[in-house]
Every structure is written in structure tokens, then in C-alpha cells.
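Q: How would the C-alpha cells look for this protein?
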Amino acid sequence: MPKPFHIAIVGAGFTGTLLAVNLLRRPELIVTLIDRRPMFGRGTAYSATNPSHLLNVRAGNMSAFADAPRHFVEWCAARGIGDETTFVPRRSFGDYIGELLGDCIADCEGRLALACADATGVEVAGNAIKLALSNGAALRPDALVLAIGNLPPQVPAGLDPATIGADAYVADPWAGSLVTSLQDDDTVLLLGTGLTMVDVALSLESAGFAGKIIAMSRRGLLPHRHAPGPGLAVGERRQGMPPTTVTALVRDVRARADAIGWRAAVDELRPFTQELWTSASAAERGRFLRHLRPWWDVARHRLAPDVATRIAAMQNGGKLQILAGKPTDFRSDGTGVAVTFRPRGLVATERLSVRRIINCTGPMGDLSNARDPLLHALIASGLARPGHAGLGLDVDHHSRLIGADGRREARLYAAGPLTRGAFWEIVAVPDIRNQVGAMAADLAELGVADALVK
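A: Here is the predicted structure in C-alpha cell form.
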């Protein structure tokens, strides 16, 4: 019998776990799942313990399997969590993925190994791969997949954590208590007004923080809310590709919004977003990122109705204030941080005095500032290069890494948010599910070819 085809997956969050589950359906494949954290199967998004942190997609669209679209709904129904219209707690989805992994471990007859370590370096010579781990081990898989998920947020320009004090700045809003040493008359500044900010504001309120929360971003845009109920019908399915230039696309979506409502007009783009991105010119992608992306994000990635209601109540009660502006300077003032910022549309600056700053700017996109040792090693060795506009890693249409010389690496892959420079909308569960399914098939074919050669 030929040697089983061994695939190493770095990252055991949703993307990496789902890929492992799909691969292990094929008896000729074996998998090593690697993560620095012992909580395999969850990842940052779904390890939340706060019941206020809800999925921003209805349960009916969250199945782990494309060929079983009601799989998660049935899982929820069996536990009395809700039905296909429910926005369930994110920790429940983490439990769901964790159970899938547990079932896989029980059923795959020793073909899955879990390694709690950092992947620190990789060497490739022909078809031979050597993956170094922080625990001193070295793996020699037949293929390697990077599925490390979203990177921690980037330190804002002009902010030096060393000069304002460790207690005054929280770099990672998911890395511990946010309210330690805060008093009821303190003010907390949240940098960013997107989905991460919403989570942090709810966490502060749930933890009993009675002070004031100020959230600031350049445009001061909040994510919109989902409509209640099962979601709006999109009417007659769009025929053919939408326009691929930014100006024409905006005009088209506005016309559709007048006809069927803005939520439906945005939602009906879902089947086309990756093709729109990949077929658009580099200039049009740049225009989208510079001018349209903030409005796309708040319209496309919406809040569960209950979450939107709570955020609105915090605003109306004066507990949460949203500011549109750009911070220009951060200085310690003895009791906290003096923040100088320029309000949107004005030349003159203003100043805030806050007790703590929490970075809610969202996942880092530009890998030049990433601290992950494996990413550094891949780029430094020329085995990988940054994707379009610095977003993630450059990959081909099969999600295989493209090296510094422009050639694809036949046995090195990336999955999930790391590939958004190539595929853009690769952060939602349905998109990752489709990518993982295609990758599993591709890796199985690679394994068959490898066995024939051997």
C-alpha cells in the first residue's frame, strides 16, 4: 500500500478545523492540525464567552457543510437554541465546530494529530516540505495549508504603547479583561466603529463598566442592522454579472435598492462578489478599497437586531458616543491618555482625555506588520508574497501560494481570511465553506497523483 498523504494545517480555528473535517472524509489522507492555543476548533471569533456576542448571520446560513445546508439548524434545534432565523450566540457556533472536530477524532481511526505549538519556519526542496515547530519538533508533510485566520489589529499610527503605559492601551480586545482598574467616572476610547467595536462596547457594559465609551473612526460609520425575521426576499434573481467598475456598480446597486430595498440589493451580490473582485482591474480594486469599502462593510456585514437595539440604547442613554475623526497624537497625561484628533471635515484639532484606549480597528490586513513567525519565514524565503494591496497572501485560483518570483507553490496553500487579497469576500462562513471544499478535493487529487508516482 502507498504511504498515506499527510497534510499539515497551521491554524485550528473555523477554517482549519473545517478543512481537517473535510479532508478526513477521505481514508487515504492523514492530517496534523497545529495551533498555538489549546482551544482547537474555535478560533478567536467563536471562543467568545459573552452571550451578548451573537452571530451576525442567521443560523440558516451557517452550516459547516454545503451538501447539508440545514446541518447547523438541526444542531441548534436539538439543543433548543433556535431555528433558521435565529442569530445564535457565537460561543454556540464554537461548540458546534468543536463537536465536529471531536466526532472526527473519534471516527478517523488515528488519522488526525493535534499539535499545540507555533509553526516557526518552513523549508521546501522539490516536493519535500520541512515544517519547524516551537516545541522543537519538525514535521515533513506532503502538503501544507496556512489557515491562521484574522491577524491581530495593527497599532494605530502615532501611538507608542511604551510611552502611554501598559494599563492605558489594550492592543488585543480578546486577550483578557477590559475593565481591570477602571472606575465608574472613567472614559474609554475605542478606536474603530465596526463589528469589533460593537463586541467590545457590549463586553464593557456586560462587565458592569459605568463610565463613558467613545468610539472613533475616520467616518464614524456603524454597521447597519439586519431586518427582523427570515431576511428580505431578493426578488427575481439577478441575471448576469454586475458591473465591474466602481462607478457603474454603485449606480446599479442604487437602482436595485430603489426596486427591492437596499438589503436585498446588497445581498443579491453575494454569488458574484468573488468574481467581481477577481475580474476587476487593479485600478478598480484600489478605487473600491479607498472610496467604497467602509460603506460596503457596514451594509454587507450587519448586526443582529438584538445587538443593534442594545447599541442604539447605549447611544441614546449617553453611554456610547460615536465620533468621526482621525487621531493625530497620543500622550500620557498622568492619569490616562491625552488624545489629539481632527474631526472629520475640519482643519482644527480637538483633545480628549481618556483612561484607556482599546484597539478595535479590526484584523490586520497588511502582512508587512504581522508578527506571525511562519508568515515572516515564508515571505523572507520567497515562498510567499503579499496579496493585492497588501491584503493577506497572494494565491492562485486554487488557493496555492504564489512566491516572490510569481510561480505557484504546488504543495503550499492558504485558506480563509489570509486569501482575501485574491478573493475578497472570504471571511463569511459560506465562502470559507466553498473554498475548503474545493481545496479538499484538490489535495485529494494531489495525494492520488503522489501515490501513483511513488
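The mean pLDDT is 89.

The chain is about 35% helix and 20% strand.

Upvote if useful.
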